Amino acid sequence: MDLHLLSQLNEAREDRRAAILVTDLDSGAQRLVRRGEEPSADPLATELARRFRSGKSGLIEAANGQRLFLTVSVPPPRLVIIGAVHISQALVPMATMSGFDVTVIDPRTAFATEERFPGTALCADWPEDVLATRPLDAYTALAALTHDPKIDDFPLQAALAAGCFYVGALGSRKTHGKRAERLAEAGVSAADLARIDAPIGADIGAASPAEIAVAVLANVIAALRKEPEAGS
C-alpha cells in the first residue's frame, strides 16, 4: 500500500472520518475516498454511499469490468444521550448491545449516578462543558431526553451544526413547537430544525420508558443504515 495513502487513512481514522480505499485488483492502483469529499461524477458514487452506510468492505465489479476491492473504514457509531432519565436507563443497554458507544450527559448529580448507570460512560456536567472536549461528529447520534431547555437546547444546536446522523428530542408537538421557536431565535435554520426527530422515536405507540427506548433506537438505526428518501 502507498505510504501516503496509508497516512491519509490513519489520519481519517484518528479524526473519526469515514474513508474507503479503492484498490484495482488488476493494476494495483489505489485511491482514497473520504466521506463528504467524493465527487458526484465518481462512477462509484452510488456504491460508495451504500458502503459508507453499511460499513462493509468487499469486492465489486465496475461497469467497465474492473475488479475493485473496497476497504471501508468507518468510525464506530456513537450515541450521546442528554439526560440520565428512566428512558436512558433502558436505552443504554439496548444501544450498547447494538454496537453503539454510549455516553450519558446530565448535570443533575441526583440522576447521573453510577448506581443508576453501572458501567456506563457517564458525565455529570453541563453538555456545553462535556462537548467542548468531546465534540460531536457525523457518526454520532444525539438524543435529548430531559425536557429541560437549559440542558437540551445547547446539545441540539451542537448536534445539528456537527452534522450528526441523528438528532432527536423528547417532548410533545406543543413542546417541540416552543423548542423550535427558541432554536430559530438562536440562529438554527428551518432546514436544520426539520432534521430533529420530535416527538422522538418511531411511531409505535410507545408508552413505558422501555418502549420509548425501543422507538428511539429504531429511528437511530434507521438513520444510520437506511438510504435517505428522495427529497429528504
UniProtKB/TrEMBL annotation:
InterPro entries: MoCofactor_Util/Proc (IPR052698), XdhC_Rossmann_dom (IPR027051)
UniProt cross-references to Pfam families, sorted A to Z: XdhC_C
Residues covered by the XdhC Rossmann domain: 79-220
PANTHER family: ALDEHYDE OXIDOREDUCTASE MOLYBDENUM COFACTOR ASSEMBLY PROTEIN, MOLYBDENUM COFACTOR INSERTION CHAPERONE PAOD
Name this polypeptide is given: XdhC family protein
Gene source species: Stappia taiwanensis
Source lineage: Bacteria, Pseudomonadati, Pseudomonadota, Alphaproteobacteria, Hyphomicrobiales
